[in-house]
Amino acid sequence: MKNLSDSTDFKQKALHWANQFEVCCFLDSNNYKDSFSEYDFVLAAGCKAELKSSTGEAFGKLKSFFEQHKQWLFGFFSYDLKNETEELKSENLDYLNFPELYFFVPEYLILGKNGETEVILGEKSVLNLINGYKVSTENEKLKVNIGSRISKSEYIHKVNALKKHISRGDIYEVNFCQEFFAENAVINPVQTFELLNQVSPTPFAGYFKLYNNYILSATPERFLCKRGAKLISQPIKGTARRSINPAEDEQIKIQLKNDLKEQTENVMIVDLVRHDLTKSAIKGSVKVDELFGIYSFPQVHQMISTISCELNPEIHFVDAIKNAFPMGSMTGAPKVKAMRLIEEYEETKRGVYSGSFGCISPNGDFDFNVVIRSILYNAKEKYLSFQVGGAITYQSETEKEYDECMLKASAILKVLAR
């Protein structure tokens, strides 16, 4: 163990050091207190072994990969693995070309907790190397010209069409997303992530480098974690703006807490998550630990619920992930029909967006986020993308839904406009 006098300074140096490797992953809680998180930050760098898989037998391959190594694994699940869990397809545009599933065993693993760091994998002397690492203070110029895949009028037309499906009883709720993108984009991924993390620090933030592909994430949402025999999911449904006026800000929080539309959206997804967890749970163990919790972040207030269960010992933890994937907060209800409509009405293949990345420990515990409020970047193709969306219900007002999308995009737009 080594005590850190300035953990922020160490994390910055550590991330820049790790970025020298072709593969690395950095997970940062940004000092948010959370009952289920094991560490304040986790840094994995270098690649001893890797698994890259497309849809078909991806979850089965991950199970075999874990059993083969029984070591710390870091990786991501693309949203399009839905085609493996259900009879679905993904035929929309994809300019990012990330793998659909990727996991690696790191050469170096550094864990931080309560101001102390521990090197789990690799030489212990790496801490001295990191502490002496020189970080460039020059901000590289961004070359980014953001465009939207659909116009505001097209967005409103599509949302109204989805509301007709709701009126007909095809679905109750659907998470509809739109892409913002830049071609010929030149960014410094580490610096861009650092700025995003400063503008919008969140409890499940992360940086993932896979050769020329990058995930720069300021996500506030946990998809699923396992602690011992317990599975925990924390879907977000319900968003409200922040105010610089403390009294007004508090009033906005109260309004969100009591907003019937937001509660309706949230409880639909809570029911969906309960159903997904039931597939992996000991009978009767699924419970709602918190309903309609209000949590505040720099750009927005969010309504977050917590659902848990005891994992059936006969079910492998990878199958528990598969049973809950993709997350209900990014699909809708009923889930399969909602995903079919998502494919029909969205213009872009989601890929890693609304998928998940995180880590698995040697004992089979894990923690995975939801890839939202995130920049995806293919450095080789110079293609940058981020998507935003929201839950569409019968009560949705199309103009307000569009405004909510722009609110969710505000931190990324601020970062890319510098």
Overall description:
This protein has 418 residues and is α+β, with helices and mostly antiparallel strands. The chain contains eleven helices and 22 strands. It has helices at residues 7-18, 58-69, 82-85, 126-131, 152-168, 189-199, 246-257, 260-278, 317-324, 335-345, 398-416, and strands spanning 2-3, 23-28, 41-45, 49-53, 73-77, 101-105, 108-113, 116-121, 147-148, 173-182, 205-210, 213-217, 222-227, 230-234, 236-241, 287-296, 300-310, 332-333, 356-360, 366-369, 374-378, 383-392. Strands 1, 2, 3, 7, 8, 9, 10, 11, 12, 18, 21 and 22 form a twelve-stranded antiparallel beta sheet that branches. Strands 4, 5, 6, 13, 14, 15, 16, 17, 19 and 20 form a ten-stranded antiparallel beta sheet that branches.
Outline of the structure:
The chain has helices at residues 7-18, 58-69, 82-85, 126-131, 152-168, 189-199, 246-257, 260-278, 317-324, 335-345, 398-416; strands at residues 2-3, 23-28, 41-45, 49-53, 73-77, 101-105, 108-113, 116-121, 147-148, 173-182, 205-210, 213-217, 222-227, 230-234, 236-241, 287-296, 300-310, 332-333, 356-360, 366-369, 374-378, 383-392. The protein is an alpha+beta fold and 418 residues long. The longest helix is centred in the middle third of the chain and has 19 residues, at 260-278.
